[in-house]
Amino acid sequence: MIMLNMLFVFFIDITFSYKNDFISHKQEQNEITRQTDITSSSGIIKENIQMKNKDKINEDKLKNETKEECTLVNNLEPKLKKEFKQKLRSGSTTPISGTSTIAANEIAPANYLQIIDRIAGAKVEILETGPGVNATKSLNPWGVANDLWSGKFNDTIFNKLSGNGYGGYTIQFKPSNTSAYGYTTDPKAGWDNSDLNLSTSSMWVKIKYTNAAYYDGELVDAIAVIKITPFKNRTEGASWSNGDYTNNTYYPLVQISDLLYRGWNWQNVNEINIDLQLFKKGSSSPIQFSEGNFGDMEATYYTINSLNPTSIQGEGENPAATYGPEYVLPKKGTYSGAYVIPGSHIVTSYGGDTSMGTQYAYNGGSSYWDGDDPSHHNWSQNSVLFTTKATTHLNFTMGNLSRDPQQQSVKRTNFVWTSISTQSFTNSYVKYIDIPVEKKWQGPGAGDDVSTVTVKLYAKYKLNYQDKEYEFRNLTLTKDSNGNWKGKFIGVPDLPSLKKLLEKHHKGGTITDQTYIVKEVYLDGKEITNTDYESTINGNMNSGFVINNKRVKNGLTVIKNWQDQNGNQITGNDTSKFPEVKVLLKRKIKTGNYSWIEDSSFSKEVSLNYDGNWKNVINGLDIKDSQNREYVYYIIEQNIPKGFRIVSYKPSSSSNPLVCTGIEIGNKTTDENKLEVTNAKDLADVNIEKVWLDVNGVQMPFNQTSNFGNIKVNLYRKVGNIKDDNFVKEVTLSYTKNWKEKVTELSVHNSDGELYNYYIEEDATTLPDGFSIKGYTPTSGINLSQDSTNNILKVENIRDKVDIPIEKIWYDVKGNKITTEGPPNLVVKLYRTTDGTTKNGELVQIEGKNEVLLTYNQGAWSYKYKNLPIKDNNGKYYTYYIQEVKPSGYLEIGSIEERSITFKQNDNTIKTLTLKNKLNPVYPATGGNGSKVYLTVGITAVAFGILLREIIQNKKERRKNA
């Protein structure tokens, strides 16, 4: 086991075995690599395949085989040869930046990044796994064992990862394929080619650390992607005591801790890459680390400790295994410098594998080192420190550089545990302390209007006896669940370290009296000088700082209330169309218990509208004047909306609700400091409707009113019995509008707050003939309501004249109707009585005439009497009947019921009055001349008798009507 404080192990096996790699490469190239020169060597390939299938091979055969492999590789196409060799390399193929040696005992910068042990609430969770993950297992925090060393997959946790109750996970990746060619000797055999390269490996896991670290004094989370390439190292049934890898199955294993500080350990892993990003709480954007170097006062950096040199395993397992030095290789663009101490063993290259040439990485080299213990004086001799660039990633790969086998026939890597350190070298440590800060508020509601407080930490010191300050950190305070505002500056250099840092910062200067102070700078992002508070600070860095805030300014809330004319509140969407209101905020200076003077220097216009929920919060108002006298704030409404009136202010006196008395704002919160003005609605609509009634007082069907012309109605108003002579609105009612009309925006009150009474009068001259005004509803008019559906004024018109149609029907001698022109015109007279009889009636003149003439028109003889009243002036109902002047040659055959109509209350159905006449009959002959003579004489005698009878009867009728 190798202890690496901040060691992200990157190990890449470069075992050079031609046949297995050649076969794998053939699969990737879809057989295109079978070139002519390779085909010519088919005999050699076949021979070598037979050799590889043997369970045991001797050293001479292996050496011969290697020579043949190298020959075949050299015969490959250049591009293929390059890709082939890249898979076998470890570290970088090109030189890397050298290291900078710091001065002896030179203090490191203060680190923005603080990864510390046992942070409360720390935990790790798996977010996503690659296809190469075989299984995961949650670790038992108390099941400490070193089972991972031997390749076991269970829930025990390695003791270096355990944090007294903190667990984690073991990730098992997909196993090796024991049937692969060259499995026992080729480290790559049994693995997918794509998994042997970090850029294509499917063996990865994405994890999240909650409460991972502190950055710039703020607790942050982290997300890491861990990617590996596999190796055959130890498994159950096989270890380094074997001379080769044996035919056992190997599972790559990685174990992670809940605590980022505790790091990771792994087995059967060739190389491991860690890509780590930090996130502020609740943010999805990674933190960008500051760019710096070792000479700065502050920087972001991490140290890789305990990079062991090349080694031979000499204890426990034999024959002894050899492995190359441990190395780390940060990703280009993520670090600004690499630093070591004087006498460091860290080198940047290694050539221990003769088949690979020079390998480049920051590594432990080959020098003997006995300091693999943090308490040893040579502990930092094999450490390297990296400062970051302005990047969002800490990305580095670790492992063992490849080395030729010595006593075994195969190459080896090792079981590794590493943790991440944000400290420096032993003699360059910055010792850190935490400085507590508490925020206290003074006054009612103080702090209730504040969400965050920003405090800055400064180093205060004397440089050559002159006062200086250096800004270190920001701290954001918020109110906790107990109502307290407490926090800490985490990871601040202690005073001795601060002195060294300042001396480093001011080279050659004399530093004295160094200490820490705090300044309150922001409340909710606003500079404290622009807020409602004044600040005083007590305490010190040892006992902690206490910041007291006293409110010197406060706020108030101006509120607009709406009511209908009945005093009911109007709220929500019902106010969406109300106009914006302007209110003038003013103030007085209190000079005594009941005395004030106006502050003419202050006046502020306040807007109130629907979008603002009819409220406006005014902050930053002085509580007192320069003489410590209380201000009293009050409001005056500027533009009273049309159709509304002021009902009251609040606060106000009981004797005069229309004057705002005002409030002092120092003893309550902004929400409690209220100034209100209430407006009552004073505009409403009225609906005017027309109702048509028939002669029976029944409402007429709408379609029967289509021929009626427009009707004029006048709308008036009054207060009490006094008519408003300045108000009249003419309203037109028509069939096209359903005999309805709405008059809008009518004032409900007069200027004195008295209710208007609205009423209507119809212009009777616009009524159609036969109708009169029956009445109005309501008869006394209405006071307008907010709900316009309740504001209805009706006028009813009733039909009091009717049209009575008459017709004449002619029949021939056979009783058939005569519909052609032939019968004579007919003179008809109309009579009426009030007693229901059809005798001795009053002759009704039509257009000044006593009778009307019925003439033939398109097959009918008809006429219509128009606008006949149904009652006399005394309210008695009429009976109408008609009589004709009988034409000669016709008989009247109709009845009096057909010629008359009687009107009654609730029964005024109109019918057509009918006159009926028939030709006198002519009898036919029965045969013979004699009979014709007698028949002629007989008919003549009968006709004469009938005619004589009619003449006598007509004379009687004339005498009666005369």
Automatic annotation (TrEMBL):
<keyword id="KW-0472">Membrane</keyword>
<dbReference type="InterPro" id="IPR008454">
    <property type="entry name" value="Collagen-bd_Cna-like_B-typ_dom"/>
</dbReference>
<keyword id="KW-1133">Transmembrane helix</keyword>
<protein>
    <recommendedName>
        <fullName>LPXTG-motif cell wall anchor domain protein</fullName>
    </recommendedName>
</protein>
<keyword id="KW-0134">Cell wall</keyword>
<feature type="domain" description="CNA-B">
    <location>
        <begin position="804"/>
        <end position="891"/>
    </location>
</feature>
<dbReference type="Pfam" id="PF05738">
    <property type="entry name" value="Cna_B"/>
</dbReference>
<keyword id="KW-0732">Signal</keyword>
<dbReference type="Pfam" id="PF00746">
    <property type="entry name" value="Gram_pos_anchor"/>
</dbReference>
<feature type="domain" description="Gram-positive cocci surface proteins LPxTG">
    <location>
        <begin position="921"/>
        <end position="956"/>
    </location>
</feature>
<feature type="domain" description="CNA-B">
    <location>
        <begin position="557"/>
        <end position="644"/>
    </location>
</feature>
<keyword id="KW-0812">Transmembrane</keyword>
<feature type="transmembrane region" description="Helical">
    <location>
        <begin position="933"/>
        <end position="952"/>
    </location>
</feature>
<dbReference type="InterPro" id="IPR019931">
    <property type="entry name" value="LPXTG_anchor"/>
</dbReference>
<feature type="domain" description="CNA-B">
    <location>
        <begin position="686"/>
        <end position="766"/>
    </location>
</feature>
<keyword id="KW-0964">Secreted</keyword>
<keyword id="KW-0572">Peptidoglycan-anchor</keyword>
